[in-house]
UniProtKB/TrEMBL annotation:
SMART domains: IMPDH (SM01240). It is found in: Peroxisome. Keywords: Flavoprotein, FMN, Oxidoreductase, Peroxisome. PANTHER family: PEROXISOMAL (S)-2-HYDROXYACID OXIDASE GLO3, S -2-HYDROXY-ACID OXIDASE-RELATED. Its cofactor is FMN. Residues 1-358 form the FMN hydroxy acid dehydrogenase domain. This is (S)-2-hydroxy-acid oxidase. One of its GO terms (biological process) is defense response to bacterium. It catalyses: a (2S)-2-hydroxycarboxylate + O2 = a 2-oxocarboxylate + H2O2; 2-hydroxyhexanoate + O2 = 2-oxohexanoate + H2O2; 2-hydroxyoctanoate + O2 = 2-oxooctanoate + H2O2. It comes from the Eukaryota. GO terms for molecular function: (S)-2-hydroxy-acid oxidase activity; FMN binding. It comes from Cucurbita maxima. GO terms for cellular component: peroxisome. Its EC number is 1.1.3.15.
Amino acid sequence: MSSEPVNVNDFKELARSALPKMYYDFYAGGAEDEHTLRENIRAFHSITIRPRVLVDVSQIDMSTTILGHRISAPILVAPTSAHMLAFHEGELATARAAAAAQTIMVLSYSSTRSIEEVASSCDAVRFFQLYVFKRRDITALIVQRAERCGYKAIVVTVDTPWLGRREADMKNKMVAYPKKNLEGLMSVEINSEPGVQLRTFAKATVDASLSWKDIEWLRSITSLPILLKGILTREDATKAVEAGVDGILVSNHGGRQLDFTPPTILVLEEVVQAVKGKVPVLLDGGVRRGTDIFKALALGAQAVLTGRAVLFGLSAKGEEGARTVLEMLKNELETTMALSGCPSIRDITRNHVRTQYDKLQAML
């Protein structure tokens, strides 16, 4: 690019130029026809903002609290794998970027830096993303390591009993990457062709029998708050509350699992209404602008998570790029709040947005 990036899409193009095609497609791609991947972004465009004027917005306060932890803005770093494919310091650089932005990073279980290395990289609040393995003893050991290293919550991914068909990885013959957190716990050698190694490994190790009854078991192995990542329906949101979880993350895995699941922003309100304020609801999927964050907050999310945007920044400019992406999103949200007449997060209400459903209702 001939000029410095000014938004996430600019960083995406820089990442495309900086990375080998195999790695760029691994980060940017989705499952099968990538319908959900595209719709995650497009669905935000169908929602309009209803700004209020003549409100004192000389001071904007974007800060909020997630599970009792104060952050500078309702933007967390989503769990994404293999940051060392983007930048040699990997998740260490991402952790420092999140700390500089005064927000929370959720470390992926399949990170290329260990739980312990990331914990010692800088002083910050961090959550840990967990996959439940067939070897429950290994799962328990990983949770104990995270708790011992000061992680403040466990984010359990529940939409991956099988790994989705990511056809770009198959075509590129994507090779397996080191899974630092599993070293010494299980064999990470994968006897299959490049391009399907990750699916083969997941099928051999991840517990496809995981069900609602196992939430009680998860409770028994940790005192940390437990959030479920991958909820898309009111039925599962209700079950999650009944199971006693501490939070819900509305997520379709960034369009990387089951294609043709709905965009997360379009089911957010359904989940929020089912939860009835009993636990916090967060959202990921398709967040590329401050206006996206504003819309999610107006529809009931307590915060959003962004994964690919941070990876694009990391790929293009390392730690500085990841930090810049987070600051860009914060600046865009601040501008959106000011121009919408919302001096603080609590001032953002359902009346500040209009969805396609609202438009249809108005026509009846």
